[in-house]
């Protein structure tokens, strides 16, 4: 499609730049367009060859989050796009604001991609809030850590318990303690060691951006 053509041309013009994509996979729950599965299938080759980092987002997972977690009876494309924009904002936070152990796309790829073609990432986000929600509460680091690994908070319709983590990058925003973050991530790894590969030397990449997230309206 047009998107993969642009990726190919950009790669030709700027071969030394990092290329990151946020790729949305189709789902019959949200759209019944016949050609969507073909577009997704045919685009994978270009993503494998020309993208350095691909963040996989699934329409089915977005729909389930809106319906089950956010309790929206009839989710609209606006609700789905709100989740996508929130994820994009969170992932690119380190590019826009200073933080502890700051990172960029190149450093992320170094830590997250064990082999060049294995650059497809599954995204978990916490806490999840509906558009225009007026009810907010403070959440603790253990709560955030537990939620980000929960299948209900994954932006792809894939249960991580049915596979194993090769690498993990955890981005936190707000006034949180790096010591507390490290302790909780280590606890997750120790309690769920069967879900993590043994050979990865850089299993976790941690980042804290002290700037609070501004609530979306």
From TrEMBL:
Residues 1-99 form the Tubulin/FtsZ GTPase domain. The keyword Transferase does not apply. Its cofactor is Mg(2+). One of its GO terms (molecular function) is GTPase activity. It comes from the Eukaryota. GO terms for cellular component: microtubule. It is found in: Cytoplasm, Cytoskeleton. Pfam families: Tubulin, Tubulin_C. The keyword ATP-binding does not apply. Residues 101-217 form the Tubulin/FtsZ 2-layer sandwich domain. Gene3D superfamilies: Tubulin/FtsZ, C-terminal domain, Tubulin/FtsZ, GTPase domain. Keywords: Cytoplasm, Cytoskeleton, GTP-binding, Magnesium, Metal-binding, Microtubule, Nucleotide-binding. Its main location: cytoplasm. GO terms for biological process: microtubule-based process. Belongs to the tubulin family. PANTHER family: TUBULIN. Tubulin is the major constituent of microtubules, a cylinder consisting of laterally associated linear protofilaments composed of alpha- and beta-tubulin heterodimers. Microtubules grow by the addition of GTP-tubulin dimers to the microtubule end, where a stabilizing cap forms. Below the cap, tubulin dimers are in GDP-bound state, owing to GTPase activity of alpha-tubulin. Dimer of alpha and beta chains. A typical microtubule is a hollow water-filled tube with an outer diameter of 25 nm and an inner diameter of 15 nM. Alpha-beta heterodimers associate head-to-tail to form protofilaments running lengthwise along the microtubule wall with the beta-tubulin subunit facing the microtubule plus end conferring a structural polarity. Microtubules usually have 13 protofilaments but different protofilament numbers can be found in some organisms and specialized cells. This is Beta-tubulin protein. It comes from Hemileia vastatrix.
């Amino acid at each position: 499609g047009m998107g993969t053509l642009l990726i190919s041309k950009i790669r030709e013009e700027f071969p030394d730049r990092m290329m990151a994509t946020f790729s949305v996979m189709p789902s019959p729950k949200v759209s019944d367009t016949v050609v969507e599965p073909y577009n997704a299938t045919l685009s994978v080759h270009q993503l494998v060859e020309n993208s350095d980092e691909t963040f996989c987002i699934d329409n089915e997972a977005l729909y389930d989050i809106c319906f089950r977690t956010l309790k929206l009876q009839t989710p609209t494309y606006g609700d789905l796009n709100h989740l996508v924009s929130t994820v994009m904002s969170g992932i690119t936070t380190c590019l826009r604001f200073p933080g502890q152990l700051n990172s960029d796309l190149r450093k992320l790829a170094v830590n997250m991609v064990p082999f060049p073609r294995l650059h497809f990432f599954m995204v978990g986000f916490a806490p999840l809030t509906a558009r225009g929600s007026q009810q907010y509460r403070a959440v603790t680091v253990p709560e955030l850590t537990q939620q980000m690994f929960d299948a209900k908070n994954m932006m792809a319709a894939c249960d991580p318990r049915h596979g194993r983590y090769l690498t993990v990058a955890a981005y936190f925003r707000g006034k949180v303690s790096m010591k507390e973050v490290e302790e909780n991530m280590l606890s997750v790894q120790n309690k769920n060691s069967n879900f993590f590969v043994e050979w990865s030397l850089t299993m976790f990449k941690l980042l804290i951006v002290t700037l609070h997230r501004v609530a979306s309206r």
